[in-house]
Amino acid sequence: MLTLVEIGKSYGARTLFSDVSMQVNREDRIGLVGPNGAGKSTLFKLILAEEMPDAGRIEMLRGISVGHLPQESAPTGEVTVLELAMAITLEMSNLRKDLAPESIGQPSKDPGDPLRFALLGGWELEGKAKRILSGLGFRERDFDRPARELSGGWVMRAHLARLLVHEPDLLLLDEPTNHLDLESLLWFQEYLREYPGAIILISHDRDFLNQLVTCVVEIRQARIFRYRGNYDDYLDQREANEEQLLAAWKNQQREIARLQLFVDRFRAKNTKASQAQSKLKQIERMDKIEAPEAAEATIDFQFPQPPRSGLKVLTLSQVRFGYGDNLVYDGIDFRAERGQRIVLVGPNGAGKSTLLKLCAGVLHPQSGLRQLGHQVKAGYYSQYRVECLHPDLTVLEEAFNTPQRLTETFVRSVLGCFLFRGDDVFKKISVLSGGEKSRLALVRLLLDPPNLLLMDEPTTHLDLSSVDALLYALSQFDGTLVFISHDVYFIRSLANHVVHVENGSLIHYPGDYPYYLDKTAARQAIESRNARPENSAKNSTSSLNRERREQKRLAAEQRQARYRERKVHEDTVHQLEKDIGTMESRQAELVAALERPETYQDSRQAVEINLELKDLQERLQQATADWESAAGRLAAFDREDS
User: Sheet harboring 55-60: ordered strands across?
Assistant: First the structure.
């Protein structure tokens, strides 16, 4: 279907591709990976003939159709959402308007309009477009809205629907999940499983790649490397290949060094000169293994551990909020406790970002109360990075835009960890890429570290290695985290509490993401059984009973969770008391030994006892401080329950 033959592409002194070859066959599922700036989007432009290679050629079978979803927003023109998804011609658009319900009963311009519309495939196309738009989260009332009224994310969904409706032979998708909520993403994932054409996919969503791709192509240091299997398989194969390459290179270097040593030692001796020359030719004839290249630069950071907060970190009580006539929440309650990692899930438009902004204090309740707990400092990471960055400032100026008093050396070292090096710090924020803005927003949080992190789609625009770095940093974070994400791998790795947001209500699931999936699947199964006609007479009573049982079960689980948490505090206190008792007994033994005159007959023994006593006193002091802290936490926990 598509063949790249010895492609080369450079921009000035920077080489993106050198002697790159690749073949794409029908029904291939290829994940294209590599760090930001490696050339993934440029490769798409070469395939689309938007740019030409400096060397090599691109061959495509005659008649092959190619569809492309760019990472950034595409134009809409003066069409409705449905017309954009259908990508219909002007003739079909006019025919469709003539056939609209409001035109029925009026004289038609052309009696053959319905037949003409049918011959052009209009009815089938419209039905398919509506099904796909619904799967991507559009409501029926959105179909006839002008597309230009939509936000950038919804416009991208409409363009994605257009591609799926027309089913090109080759789909080029550049970060297609960036603008999808979790439910739409899962629908899209299932749809692509059955897609009849070939797909080349750029994505930072590890779980999405694992579910779809059968081959991974990595762009690294101007070359491409192809691996069979999904993303996890690629990681395993790459690690194994690099270990084998490193071992082979080291063995060859040792052999070359051994032969060269013989040459250097005996080249000048007449009796050994011929042997030395033979060894030298042996070195020259070797098929040299290239030295393994250093890994590409990735962001490397860890959130500084903030001051410890109280148990109650954040509380929303009877909060009401809306936008004009659109009431989003009416009397909701929300609570976050120290150490929780809460993910907000639910359909797009349900109010997840609004809830996060209410938690962050970016939006203020129209009634009700928002309270931060003892010593809580909140940090908000917006989905739209421009909301927390100033486009007219440079990277360095934005980094200094913090209440903390910081030295330029320290700020530049942190920026360097996020790949802002040299003159990069003088770039205007307005010219930064999406990934660079995401990294700079993370720098802002690091330079003024909170103990309550509120993050809206933190992985958007980050490459896979940067997502892994962020995931590791957050897993080590001692504070409280409330976040929104459509990255299933990211959610599975972090969340220990799930809140489902829909229709202005919040449902809490005191467990991780698999627990939430199990509970929602069970609830949906019960609802589908109760929806059968023969059960209609019993539905009202049984539904109420089930709801009461579910509430009791959730309350019991929460009590159990509180009991387990208290048990941890109690066990910590008891263990510290036991350790302190053991150390105090040993301390008494050592003091008694020092009081005996015979101890000083062996000066070495007296020194050893003194050293042990000093170390023991330091450990005892630390253990006592730890006990006081643990006992205070236990007492505070008991006061919360009283």
Answer: 14-24, 2-11, 55-60
pTM of the model: 0.62
Give the whole-angstrom CA distance, residue 77 versus residue 80: 9
* Closest to 335 in 3D by CA, of 510, 138, 581, 535: 510
- Residue 346: beta bridge partners? none
Residue-wise pLDDT for 364-399, tens only, equals 999 999 999 999 999 888 876 556 788 888 888 888
Per the CB < 8 A criterion, the answer to whether 17 and 39 are in contact is: yes
DSSP states of 121-184: THHHHHHHHHHHHHHTT--GGGTTSBGGGS-HHHHHHHHHHHHHHH--SEEEEESTTTT--HHH
What's the one-letter identity of residue 557?
E
* Exposure letters 205-240 (e unless 16+ CB within 10 A, then b): bbbbbbbbbebbbbbbebebbebebbbebbbeeeee
Are 557 and 564 in contact by the 8 Å Cβ rule? The answer is no
The answer, yes or no, to whether residue 64 has pLDDT greater than 50, is yes
Task: Output the CA torsion sign for 236, 442, 431, 204.
Answer: positive
* Residue 585, phi-psi category: left (phi > 0), alpha (psi -120 to 50), beta (remainder): alpha
**Bridge partners, 453 (sequence order):** 379, 481
335: enclosing H helix or E strand: strand 326-337
pLDDT tens for each residue of 493-519? 999 999 999 888 999 999 999 888 888
| DSSP 8-state assignment for residue 186 | H
**The two structure tokens encoding residue 1:** 């279907």
Contacts of 59 (CB under 8 A, 6+ apart): 2, 3, 5
Report CA-CA distances (Å) from 325 to 150, 214, 318, 329, 526: 19, 48, 19, 12, 35
**Among 211, 199, 203, residue whose Cα is nearest residue 1:** 199
DSSP H or E stretch at residue 56: strand 55-60
The two structure tokens encoding residue 158: 């409409």
Instruction: Summarize pLDDT for 329-342 with one digit per residue, the tens.
Output: 999 999 999 999 99
